[in-house]
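Researcher: We're teaching a course module on how sequence relates to structure. For the next exercise, students receive a sequence and then see the predicted structure as tokens, so they can try to spot secondary structure elements on their own. Here is the exercise chain.
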Amino acid sequence: MNTQMSGDYENKENTFSVHKINESSMQNRNFGADITNNKILVQDPKPKDHFPPDYSNNDIFALLYTMECNNVAKFGYLRVQSDINERMRAILVDWLTEVHLKFKLVAETLYLAVDIMDRYLEKVPITKLRLQLVGVTAMLIASKFEDIYAPEIGDFVYITDRAYDRDMIIGMEASVLKTLEFNISSPNILLFLEHYCEILATDRKNAMLARYFAELTLADYSMLKYRKSLIAAASLFLMHKVMAIQPPWPESLKSCSPYNEEDLKICSKDLCILFQKAARVNLQSVRKKFSLPVYYSVATTQINNANSNLYT
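Model: And here is the predicted structure for the students to work with:
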């Protein structure tokens, strides 16, 4: 994988570029068990009664719908930042996606890292020189929370080509945790998406395509305006549209979620735009990742003539 950061990653008005991944330093390092893909989205869906009989799946997700707006950054938070902007955030999230893949971390870690980063930036103004430090620290905290084999601090020193040392990362970790009052997690997009795919017994490749749509939203600042469960539902809705699966939002999902088809159209249109322009933008980590065979190469999916006008 080519991890040299392109010159296109610079914003001409507010120059910002992430430090490249140090491939030579990482060559002989083992970053953890490759369990990233041993998740429900690439396994056969679990039977609908896989929860113990004393637990109600519907009750659990009813609670999660009430919790999903806790511990999240609000859209528009970048107004408190004078030295960083949407483009810089997008560059950093794109790089974190590449780091996440290199470290072979579980899928949830990336979603949580972006959440932690956004929540910290919402509260603490920082300079662009420290933005990548916030990003790698968020990834460190998220991997400790989600992964069995989390990378060590030294791994993040290497991954930034020693742009930050151990003490700087530890100091930022303390600052992030104190600022967030140690409230780390909230329900993420992937949790809801897995739930919806499980209900429909969605096959592996189609579920992965929906996950690709969901992951494209992470780098797009404007998508913070949508609830995570809504992005998950819209990702599955768009996958059904692209793959010409009818109905695009079945009755079983209407009954187990807060959404009907009309609720999903605006968000899914935004997702469709991200999908259609993914091949043309400079930031390519998500598309390259989902072009790999292990992800069923879903990023190469084409919209054919039969479903080209998805929202007409």
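Model: If you want an answer key for the exercise: The chain has 13 helices and no strands. The radius of gyration is 19 Å.
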